[in-house]
Amino acid sequence: MPLLDVRNLSRVYVSGQQRVFALRNISFEVDSGEFMSIMGPSGSGKSTLMNVLGCLDRPTDGDYLINGRSVLELRTGELADLRGGEIGFVFQTFNLIPSLSAQSNVEVPMMYRGHPARVRRTRALEALERVGIEHRADHLPSQLSGGEQQRVALARALSTDPALILADEPTGNLDSETSKSIMQLLSRINESTGVTIIQVTHDDDMATYGERLVSLYDGEITEDEHLNHPTAADGSSEGVTV
Ligand SMILES: Nc1ncnc2c1ncn2[C@@H]1O[C@H](COP(=O)(O)OP(=O)(O)O)[C@@H](O)[C@H]1O
Ligand SMILES: [Mg+2]
Fold first, then answer.
1. Measured distance CA(10)–CA(23) in Å, rounded
2. What is the set of domains in the chain, with CATH numbers?
3. pTM to 2 decimal places
4. What is the mean pLDDT of residues 40-59?
5. Which ligand is nearest to the CA of 43?
6. 45: closest CA among 227, 210, 200?
7. What pLDDT band is residue 182 in, cutting at 50, 70 and 90?
8. How do residues 158-180 score in pLDDT, each as one tens digit?
């Protein structure tokens, strides 16, 4: 069974007399452990798709199943549980709480889930270590570089041990060197933990870190391609991007 199953999904925005077809009858599956990139011009429906995949929004038509369960059948509380427990979000603008330290930011989703302070602390420090930034645990976001803030945001997304990470242009606000290091980190985490990652990117280079590239245009999937990574198992490291 695929982790995600998108079936003939449409999302139409209605404002006054106007109807905007943000997603038109799209279908695809995502297996557990995949690292997928979504590309497309501005307005092609990328964020709308991410919102539906993250259960922040519901389809107008069609269906969306997570682990075989249709989100249409879930009540609001069940959706919130699914979001909080199985999905981690990473944003272009990091979205850290400015008044909280890196560690406290990482603890926020665990607070919502009612974990006791000691468990939160241990897990937050583990998550910060995993993204290579445990030495900044006490720093405020304003005391961190963009790349460091995105690492904290990634630690926060990982702190509840989700099945799926959704990242909407995670390197959109970062310079190219920092972007590369964030992508390398994402693919390491994907390989070591098996967490499924779906990222939106504007950048061809960033898309190469995933193993699959879905192109959106005007609310439709125009391409869904598997990207080949020559791996160390081939005995050659030439061209390896991760
Ligand atoms: N809340 C909304 N109300 C009305 N139209 C919207 C809303 N959100 C997005 N849209 C429209 O839906 C289309 C897809 O938007 P979006 O998913 O944000 O695209 P992308 O992320 O690829 O730039 C665009 O035409 C956009 O104007
Ligand atoms: Mg967008």
1. 5
2. 4-229 (3.40.50.300)
3. 0.93
4. 96
5. 1
6. 200
7. very high
8. 999 999 999 999 999 999 999 99
Please tell me the distance from the alpha carbon of residue 79 to that of residue 131, in angstroms, as a whole number.
28
Q: Report the 3 state secondary structure along the chain.
A: CCCEEEEEEEEEEEECCEEEEEEEEEEEEECCCCEEEEECCCCCCHHHHHHHHCCCCCCCEEEEEECCEEHHHCCHHHHHHHHHHHEEEEECCCCCCCCCCHHHHHHHHHHHCCCCHHHHHHHHHHHHHHCCCHHHCCCCHHHCCHHHHHHHHHHHHHCCCCCEEEEECCCCCCCHHHHHHHHHHHHHHHHHHCCEEEEECCCHHHHCCCCEEEEEECCEEEEEEECCCCCHHHCCCCCCCC
Residue 186 CB contacts under 8 Å (≥ 6 apart), including other chains: 35, 154, 165, 167, 170, 197, 199, 209
Indicate if the pLDDT at residue 198 is higher than 70.
yes
Is 130 touching ligand 1 by the criterion CB < 6 Å? no
Tokens at residue 211, please?
Answer: 């193993």
Which amino acid makes up residue 45? G
* Identity of residue 149: Q
Asked if the model's pLDDT at residue 240 lies above 70, the reply is: no
Q: How far is the centre of ligand 2, averaged over its atoms, from the C-alpha of 51 (Å)?
A: 10
Q: 9, 11, 12, 13: which to mutate for ligand 1, most atoms within 8 A of CB?
A: 13
